[in-house]
Amino acid sequence: MIEKQEELRANAQKLAAPGKGLLAVDESTPTIGKRLALIDLENTEEHRRAYRGLLFTTEGLGEFISGAILFEETLYQDHADGESMIDKLGKLGIIPGIKVDKGLRPLPGALSGETWCNGIEGLVERAAEYYERGARFAKWRAVLQISDDGCPSQLAIRENAWGLARYARAVQESGLVPIVEPEILMDGAHSIERTAEVQERVLTEVYNACAQNGVFLEGSLLKPSMTVSGADHADKESPQKVAELTVRTMERCVPASVPGIMFLSGGLTEEDASIYLNTINSIPRKGPWSMSFSYGRALQQSCLRAWRGTDLDAGQKALMARAQANSEASLGKYVAGSQPSAEESLFVAGYKY
Ligand code: 13P
After folding, report:
1. 61 CA distance to ligand 1 middle (Å)
2. How far apart are CA 264 and CA 296, in angstroms?
3. 230 lines ligand 1 (CB under 6 A)
4. Whose CA is nearest to atom 8 of ligand 1?
């Protein structure tokens, strides 16, 4: 029996509150280096502090953002003015979360390139320490890919689903709401129908494993990719088609007791991520969950570009613009193009987080 059930349920509902989504800024130290390199900044602790400090002192951000996913360094870091990053988030009314997985490893016995997600050992104890520090939710990202030569294999699906369920149950033990993230990469030329078929297999296996592990679903969130075609597919699907297949996939696989489905952006442009989410929330659906966002790249690109290491005000304005766009999209009220965005593609083949 999980002790903190009521707290988990309440926090999951707060994170999935109407009109709000998550800011995923849990890039590991090497990954944030790729972001900083975009604007010619060296990957030093000082620069990471300055950037994340900018994000967490953006006035009004809590109107659109319910929670921020942090990397461990940030959870224990102070802002340049001496106040902790956690306290900065608290002042904005944003709940701190923590990435707890330790990254992907090759999966022996599976197909070439397939991975499993590492970090389960000692996780109950680690999660208890993060809770003590102020974190109230966690994230674990498992990755599957689609290929012509048989990916994802049944072994990769089973191992990654099982890992997600084990993680979810472990962090709930220590009072953290688990975000269950089975990402299906956009790499490849496959059709949207093929993505839907694979995603149904994956999500079914994930919730099967959650049942076997006794995960308290009311105190958990799902973070899937949207059901889109491969990045190299000949035609780009319409937002309507993406929305219809995404909603159909979720309705077929995600239990009604899960309070929120918070999509990742996975390499979509900032504007596509908002338009797709808006369309998802504009069509009829039977599923009762809130459908919102937990974007990393699609919330940060124009902010980084505007900031450039010096212009705090421009960076914060750009962040607010995309946060507001996605908040509106989560309610089906976003007008395409009504907020500025970085138009560049955010997809990188073989992207490693
Ligand atoms: P993207 O929105 O950039 O895909 O990142 C979300 C995330 O947290 C991936 O784990």
Report:
1. 19
2. 7
3. no
4. 24
For the record, the structure tokens of 4 come out as 């903190």
- Domain borders along the chain are 5-329
**Whole-angstrom Cα distance, residue 251 to residue 246?**
9
Q: Count the Cβ atoms, other than its own, within 10 Å of residue 216.
A: 20
Tokens of 249: 């996939």
Give how far Cα 202 sits from Cα of 44, 83, 135, 144, 316, Å: 38, 42, 28, 9, 37
Give the ligand 1 atom nearest the CA of 300.
3
* Residue-level pLDDT at 348: 85
Ligand 1 site, residue 322, Cβ cutoff 6 A: no
Question: Of ligand 1's atoms, which has the minimum distance to the CA of residue 273?
Answer: 2
Q: Which CATH superfamily is domain 5-329 in?
A: Aldolase class I (3.20.20.70)
Mean pLDDT for back-to-back runs of 10 residues, the chain (353 residues): 93 98 98 96 98 98 98 98 98 98 97 97 98 98 97 98 98 98 97 98 98 98 98 94 98 98 97 98 98 98 97 98 98 95 86 73
Among 223, 237, 244, 271, which one carries the catalytic annotation? Answer: 223
Residue with tokens 């979720």, as numbered in its chain:
250
Q: Which two tokens stand for residue 91?
A: 């002042």
| 3-state SS record for 151-190 | CCCHHHHHHHHHHHHHHHHHHHHCCCEEEEEEEECCCCCC
Q: Please give the Cα distance from 324 to 317 (Å, whole number).
A: 10
Query: Residue 178: CB within 6 Å of ligand 1?
Result: no
Are 14 and 66 contacting, i.e. CB atoms less than 8 angstroms apart? yes
Residue nearest to atom 4 of ligand 1 (CA): 266
Concerning whether 223 is annotated as a catalytic residue, the answer is yes
265 lines ligand 1 (CB under 6 A): yes
The dihedral through the CA atoms of 308, 313, 316, 318 has a sign that is: negative
Which 3 state secondary structure label does DSSP give 69?
strand
Is 181 tagged catalytic? yes
The amino acid present at 285, given as its one-letter code, is R
Give the number of other CB atoms < 10 A from CB of residue 317.
Answer: 16
Please state, in angstroms and rounded to a whole number, the distance separating the CA atoms of residues 48 and 36. 8
Cα(302)–Cα(99) distance, rounded to whole angstroms? 23
Q: Which atom of ligand 1 is nearest to the CA of 69?
A: 8
